[in-house]
Automatic annotation (TrEMBL):
GO molecular function: ATP binding; phosphorelay sensor kinase activity
Full-length numbering of the shown residues: 253 to 483 of 483
Biological processes per GO annotation: regulation of DNA-templated transcription
Domain Histidine kinase: from-to ranges: 20-230
The name this protein goes by in its record: histidine kinase
Organism lineage string: Bacteria, Bacillati, Bacillota, Bacilli, Bacillales
Keyword line: ATP-binding, Kinase, Nucleotide-binding, Phosphoprotein, Transferase, Two-component regulatory system
UniProt keyword Kinase, yes or no: yes
UniProt entry tagged with the keyword Lipid metabolism: no
Length: 231
């Protein structure tokens, strides 16, 4: 038991150091990004197209590091949750422009009926946005060259739970990956961070929700379960 505690302590300490390091990376990255942008414009003025292309690649790569750092911080730092009654439809409507834009870029059609009202859930709307954004992003990325993204809200009878389903028509999750998709840093993508689903799971843990996945060859459905308010 003592060894187990020591192991947990060590992991917690490593987590703290890592989170601190990630946090400290933010400022230098912002500065590098800023000066790169200046360089990009200067090269554009001068007509150095090739070099301008390099700066664009560098900016993209910096954005990737930024994403990684943000997701890592979300995972490692205990974040305070601000609970309030939330209408899930409103949360989805707010992120719809971002999803539509991403979908358009990937030739994906989005199906979501926002009209109906559902029982409210006690949650943190900012954190919920992150969960749904991550799931929709994954769905769109899974459908490499077009498909349909369907978002549904259901009231589960007899359980006081609301289910938000994010369904795609992608190739499904390969058998070998099914066990691992929620592990931090597990990714099958060339440019993936492998942190999206870990972040989702962590957030749902914090707000008393849950996440399930069902995947077949015709597509994948992630279901987010949230306890809803009853009156
Ligand atoms: P990332 O998107 O950076 O790879 P995630 O944690 O969001 O990290 O996802 C982990 C892995 O789970 C993905 O690399 C992919 O293999 C798998 N995955 C997630 N969502 C889907 C989906 N809708 N369809 C197929 N595979 C998926
Ligand atoms: Mg992802």
């Amino acid at each position: 038991l003592e060894m187990q505690i020591r192991q947990t302590d060590r992991l917690a300490m490593i987590g703290q150091i890592a989170a601190g390091t990630a946090h400290e990376m933010r400022n230098p990255l912002t500065s590098i990004r800023g000066f790169l942008q200046v360089m990009k414009h200067a090269l554009k003025e001068k007509g150095d197209l090739k070099e301008q292309g390099y700066t664009e690649i560098m900016l993209r790569e910096i954005d990737r590091i930024n994403d990684l750092v943000s997701e890592f911080l979300l995972l490692s730092k205990p974040r305070s949750v601000r609970f309030s009654p939330v209408q899930v439809t409103d949360v989805l409507k707010e992120i719809m422009p971002i999803i539509q834009n991403e979908a358009l870029l990937h030739n994906v059609q989005v199906r979501f009926r926002g009209g109906r009202e559902f029982p409210q859930v006690m949650a943190d709307s900012e954190l919920l946005k992150q969960v749904f954004l991550n799931l929709c992003k994954n769905a769109i990325e899974a459908m490499g060259d077009g498909g349909v993204l369907t978002i549904r809200i259901k009231v589960l009878k007899q359980t006081d739970k609301l289910a938000v389903e994010v369904q795609d028509t992608g190739p499904g999750i390969p058998a070998y990956a099914k066990e691992k998709i929620f592990d931090p840093f597990f990714t099958t993508k060339e440019n993936g961070t492998g942190l999206g689903l870990s972040v989702c799971q962590r957030i749902l843990q914090d707000i008393g929700g849950d996440i399930h996945v069902s995947s077949k060859e015709m597509g994948t459905t992630f279901s987010v379960l949230l306890p809803h308010l009853v009156d």
